[in-house]
Here is the input.
Amino acid sequence: MSKTKKWRCFFCDEVFTDRRAAWIHFGEPNCTDDVPACVDPLRHDEKARLAELREAREHAMKMQTESEKNDEAEALLENFRADLRRYFGNDCTSVW
Here is the structure.
């Protein structure tokens, strides 16, 4: 029997059993950057904007990580090209 993880907000006493819903409510871990969505009473459209902002931050972090991986791959490819130029010379345009 597995217990479902629960998150309870100390401000509004709302309980979340879904990790994503809890993340949207609480924001960053330990509320260091953002306060929970319930602390400052928000209109419905502001709550949606806050959720979109948090999702956009998460997406931006994923894209940053992917960009760093692409930069590393590009550096490896350039090193490989430099090795080919050293071995075959600068005039070589293809290797069979």
